[in-house]
Structures are given as C-alpha cells and as structure tokens.
Amino acid sequence: MTIEQDVQTPSEPVLPKKSRASNLNMVRKVWPWAFLILMVVVFTISSKVMNNVDFISVRSVQGILTYATQILLIGLAETLIIIAGGIDLSAGYMLGLAAVTGAQIMKTLFAAGANPIVTIAAGMLGGTLVCIIPGFINGWLVAKIKVPAFIATLGMGYVIYGAALVRSKGYPVAEQPPYLGAIGNGFVFYYWPGHASSFFKMPPGAIQSDLATITALVPNVVLITLLVAIVVWFVLSKTQFGQHLYAVGGNYQAALRAGIPVDKVIIKVFVTGAILCGIAGSLWSTRFTSGDANAGVTSLLMGIAAVFIGGASMFGGEGRVIGTVIGALIIGTIQYGLVVLGISPFWQYFAVGVVVIVAVIMDQFGRTLER
C-alpha cells in the first residue's frame, strides 16, 4: 500500500461511541422528568375514567407535595451521604427518635403550664438536636474505626429504634399543646372569596361551615421543606464542604492526596444528615400531633429510592438536590394517585421498586458505555 493510499484510507470513526455515551447521559438526566409527567398523565386519565375525579387540581397538587415532604427530607439527608460514598440506614429511625423526643418535651412543658409557643419551639428544637448524637457516632465509626457505613448505620438504627421505643413505651406520645396541629396541617395563604384573605391563619370571621368555600394554598410543611431543600442545594453547590463531598465520594484516595480532611468531612456529613432527619421528625409531630417511634420506618427506603431515582450513583460522587426532589415527587405522585384510584397502597412498594430498578439499570448501563 502506498503512502497516498494510506492517507486516503478513512480512519476508524470514534464519534458514534461518544455520541451514544452523550445521548445516554442525556437520557439518564431527563428520564425522571419524563416518568413524572407520564405518571401525571396516567393518573389524570385513569382517575377521570374510573372515579370521575380530576387528578389535576390545587387540592391534588398540594396533596402530592405534602406526601413528598417527609420522603424528600430523608432523601436530602441520604443525598449528602450517598454523594460522599456512604449510606445511612438509621435515618428513618432517627426521624422516629426526633418525633418521640420532641413530643415528650412538649408534653412535659405543656403539663407544667409553659407557653404553648415556647413549648412547641423547645420540642421541635430538642427533637432535632437529639439526632446529632447518633449522627456523630455514625460518622465517627465510619471515619475513624473504618466500619462500613452499611453496617455502622444498620446497627445504630436498631439502637435508636430501641431507645425510642423505651422512651415512648411503645405507644404514641400524645397530649400535645394547642396550635401544634395548626403548624403541621395549616397553610401559608387563605383566600375567602368575597370576604377576606390571610397568611398562616384562617380569615377573621370564618367558622367551620365556611371551610368549603375557603381556598388554602401552600401547606406549611411544604414551605419549610422547600426552604430546607434550598439550603441543602446551596451547601452542595456553593460551599467548600459541598465540593469536598463530591471529591471524597468520587475518589477517596485522591481526596486524601489533595489534602482534604476526609475524616472530618465524613463526620460532618453524617451529622448534617442527622439534623435533616431531626427536622423531618419534628415536622411529623406537627402533622400528627404526637410522637411515634415507628414514624419514619417506611420513609427510609422511600427516601433512598428518591435519591437513586433522581440520578445519584450508588458508587458516590454523583447526585443533585433537584434530582432527589423529582424522585420524591414521583413517589408522592404514586402514593397519592393510588389513594385517588382507591387501589391498595401496598402496590406503591411494587411501583417504587420497579422505578428504582430502572434507575439502577440506567446508572450501570451509562457507566459501562462511558468505559
């Protein structure tokens, strides 16, 4: 073969492989949004056909958002930890511990005649802060003792659950102060056509029979959860701590060589995740005006599922707050949609499991193509 012939011979194309990887990466980012839209369409049609109910309404949207709040708060905690290359199987039990501890504080102060507002504030703060203890122990075991996060948090989860059951004696902690339910089940804005509107409380002059004519917008728990999500997004995107989380989860050894204080980062992320679980437990108490050790048992796996559905990698180093938000909305839509259709809620676990499997397959397939 001559030099001229060799020059004219076309080289092996490399663009198609890059193009396939690029396209798949785009699919990995877009498919949760597409699936959420698909779920809304399916439930809209089926609810109209089966029950003659409009699925798309202010009430249903707010119902979905309320369903998603607890899942999202647990999911945000898991997002931080999973990005750093770990996982926290005690998160749901921490929620229960926070709910029980906060409810007991409020019950004690209320019985002692303390101001209801002070009582609620003390209970929510105490319930949130108590979670720092198991969170720190989790981080210390993983960072210093080198116990795998799966094992350390699994063991701590049972310790926390046992402690919450002992404190509550296995029963919900009731006898809570007034206004507690108004926080968890209230709304930011109330509009009473032809009369008045108000923020955070019912319009003046409204009575029980007027509730059907009053439009309530933005549940309080949704607003609080949104503010927490914005803070977590800021931490991940705009702070050195957030960048360290991606570095540690992406390549542990490289992070060490770069001078990142890996042990401190790991301890801090488990403590931060515990605080988020504490907030979730405190909000649970406001919604159900009690405290229960079992409050977060089902939320743990749903929260982890939301993280993976949202595009986080099980190997660490990848994850976004907006992805976890979409994952929580998908699960919330499934839960609320099944209720509207009158289908057994047990099917939600089947549906969420299928979605998680699809998410993991997308992640694995994408990594294979990238290699």
Order of helices and strands: HHHHHHHHEEEHHHHHHH
Rg (C-alpha, Å): 24 Å
What is the approximate shape?
globular
What class do helices, strands and sheet pairing give? mainly alpha
Are there runs of 5+ residues with pLDDT below 50, and where? 1-12
Share of residues in helices: over 70%
How far apart are the termini?
A: 34 Å
CATH fold description: ABC transporter involved in vitamin B12 uptake, BtuC
General description of the model:
The structure is a single chain. The protein has one domain: Orthogonal Bundle (ABC transporter involved in vitamin B12 uptake, BtuC). Helix 2 (15-51) packs parallel to helix 14 (321-341) and helix 6 packs antiparallel against helix 7. A three-stranded antiparallel β-sheet has the order 2-1-3. It has 371 residues and is mainly α. Strand 1 (187-192) and strand 2 form a beta hairpin. The two termini are 34 Å apart. Residues 1-12 have low confidence and may be disordered. The protein is built from 15 helices and three strands. The radius of gyration is 24 Å and the shape is globular. The chain has helices at residues 3-8, 15-51, 58-83, 91-111, 116-129, 132-143, 149-168, 180-185, 220-238, 240-250, 252-257, 262-288, 297-309, 321-341, 347-370; strands spanning 187-192, 196-199, 215-219.
Question: Top keywords for this entry?
Answer:
single chain; 371 residues; mainly alpha; ABC transporter involved in vitamin B12 uptake, BtuC; 3-stranded antiparallel sheet; 3 strands; disordered N terminus
